[in-house]
Amino acid sequence: MNRIAHILSWVLSPILIPTYAVFAALWITPLAMLPADIRWNVVIVTALVTCVLPAFAIMLLYWMKIISDPGLNNRTERLAPYVLTILCYCACAWYLYSIHSPHWMWMFMVAGACTAVVSCIINTWWKISAHAAAMAGFTAMLFRIAADHIAIVPIWPYIAASIFLCGALCTSRMLLDRHTFWQVTAGSANGFLMVYLLTM
């Protein structure tokens, strides 16, 4: 069970969720009418900015012994990675805005940055779950797509799968003793509300 929990924690890492979200947005909304090479370019740039760059920076901090765990399980070592993540989300939002993506799409990244700011502030005294916040934010994006009636495929199976994965991820974080029930609940509320409200 712990092995599954570890796999879920890595596969649904906060630095991967933005790429999943952009991929979903480009394949289940009218944006799917764009040429495939354009869509893949957007996914790749998003992955580089919000995944590869933060991952490299975290490993660099680890190699320099500024942080003791690349998984950032020590609450007191999260400030620098949080700040970097916020900057990366902002950079990706600017990129999506510059290529004239829909308002809700680039605002998803702004909402991600705002979620990280809230998490960073709370993290100074309490270890709120970034994993839960990211996955709940992804779920909120799907709900927003459904609410705005812009899905070109049946959206509810995707929403159901996302809710299931969010629950499984939160359970995994508790099984691994990374967070308590209230920490994953607070993280989920932070991510969901921020994305759903800011992408209106």
From TrEMBL:
Coiled coil: none annotated. The chain crosses the membrane at residues 7-28, 40-63, 79-97, 103-126, 158-176, 181-199. Keywords: Membrane, Transmembrane, Transmembrane helix. This is Phosphatidic acid phosphatase type 2/haloperoxidase domain-containing protein. It comes from Muribaculum intestinale.
